[in-house]
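A note from the maintainers: we've had questions about how concatenated examples are separated. There is no special marker in the raw files; a new sequence line simply starts the next protein. For clarity in this README we add a label.
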Amino acid sequence: MSLNKKHLTIMVAIAAIESLTHFGVIAADSPHFFRATEYFLGWREDLPSVGAVRPLLPFLTTTLAPLIGISMSYAVINAILYPISGIICYKLTQRLTKNPLVSLISSVMFLTSVAMIAFGASAYYMGLTIFSEFLVALLALDVWRSKLNALFRGIISGILALSGEATLPYILFGGILTLQRRKYGEAMTYLVFSTLPPLLVPTLLGCNLLQFYLKLNIGYAKSIGYLDLAHWFDPFTRIKFLAAGTSLLMLTGLIIGFLVDKDEDRAKTFYIMFGLTFLAWLTWVPSERRHVYIFYPSISWMSGIGVCWLCETLNQKPILNKLSFKQWLIILLALNALLSNLLAAQWYVGGYLHPLGPIPGLSLPPF
């Protein structure tokens, strides 16, 4: 299905505004990735473990870093990927729902979600990882078509997995979808070539993946007092982070969409997609709301279904029907974007993220 030009304009405009007003933010552990770039440039001899496990963006920044500086190269690449991620979100939703309007709603909510606003154009690894999640999920839908197709998509997905381990649930999603079609050769081809890079490359770069997980997850949880089952699996904590890291509208739309959507094939796809990302999320300590970015491809499209249904229902109620469906949609998306920007600004003002420019709550490029 083709991409609606008006929808494309809306997505690019929103992405440009959000990326330019939240550009180049430096997270607490961004310097680890900066040192990884220095390693790939030959400027230092030691490679931080995060640079070995997530080497794709540090490696890509070597093309720009000598010209514009390391931190700026991260921000520029992520800012370029910001609208592209929104477009892929649109295409993924369009494939699953066959509805251009739901696709637009899904993309707009994603582009104005809290974690995307705060980190999407930052000097950090997350912008590329979120882009990679969406692209891997979209590629996964057609792995079954042929072994050559599975090989190609497996190689691409394996390379993208080097951006961050949050892509792995979507690789498994592709494997399961293909196995469901009894395409066993295609599934094995895809899974082998998509999992080899994230397993072999860190090892070749001298990183023990098990030690990495134990140190950055288990060890970190212990150091902050979160290494107990009561906190780790506390449903209130998990739901709070999910709402605060995505958005209230996205979470509301997700619940409504799941309840009202009657399409059995979509329901099965959602079970696999969301189930894999939920299990992956449970393996990580619930310490920060930004970690919910792993859910974006699995929930954005279902949230779009729910918000579309919500606006249709509001338009049919007495008194509330004085506003049209379109007006309700604009109001809800605009209020959601405003709230998400305010929550992202709190991250900046709170000191965890270090923005550029003199305006509190924003981060503006210096050029």
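[label: protein 2]
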Amino acid sequence: MDGPQQKFMSIFTETLIKIMNPDKTLVVGVPLQDRPDSRDFPTIFKPKGSHEVRTFFDTELGDGDEFDLILGSIPMGLRPNSIQKSRMSSKYLNWDLFFTFSKHLKPDGFGLFLIEPYGFTKTGQNRHREFLQLMEKESVYVEGYINLPPKILEPCTTLQPLLVVLSRKKNHFKLLDLSQETGLEDRIQKFFKSNIGDENTSDVDVSSFRGFRVLEVARQINTLETRYKEYHSVPLQTLSQKTVRGNRDRDFEDTGNCIYFKLLGSNNNLHTRKDQLTGRTDNYLQLQLTDQIDNEYLRIFFKSSLGQLILDYVMNSQMFPRVDPEMLMSSDIPVPDLSVQLQLVETDRRFEILQSEIEVMKRQISLNP
């Protein structure tokens, strides 16, 4: 990390030190032998000032060690060794370390740690709620999340992390998006001293937060002007009489009115027949639809602007693109009368034929101008 990224983190850290005026700061880095691979994972926090600063990577802090500020640059997704795993509260070592270090915060202190783009929420899992509850039992609370500028960790990784802010007091959960780097000092001041986050995020709950990208997609869905919004909408779960996860050793049963979603990878072009599937069967989710909706209409809908945004919403697109089945099935789908659906399907079919004919004409003209 260098250039603009280092400059941003220097400004952010200096502003934070100025606002908090800490007596004792702990900076958590990673020694060479604990790095997940040979790449140099950066220590993004380099606080300056006359206050006491300690830098190490050791969970065995003394009972009397308390800090006003803890700044952690721990590799995301860090996995434990067998000894560490036996005494951990979470599946991920970096999460467990956040928890352990934050127990050493003073009552008015804050801990800031690099975390994956989705925060404490793992796609398709609910165990994060148990971990949040466990932390709360030990009086460690998620104060909020801070979104960082793009490419903040390049060239180490292209992943855009967040900062999770932990404290020993339960305050109003809030979010701060610093990806645009405007008005830094004033907004950081409001976040840490006035308990005020960004506007339009007050209805976000700590246990349901899935990343700033998901919030942005949800905002786009709400503001999108489309005729689909004129139709009555129902959750996809209501339109599915059966959901089948693919099995490597068993083929799908083709019941006729089905649609298939890839669990890992792009869903820009959905399939409605099992003979259209490519790759491993266990990478697909089959939805056997009710007679309320036509599978070809649903395929066409997911090609629309609104459909693409919904697919974006249910994907963890910051990491490997992966569908969250729970989010997918809870998505609202506009459902016109079946006769209207079939009209749209027929119109789409004719349009595809026309496009094919135009492509043939283009090739003929290029060969015989």
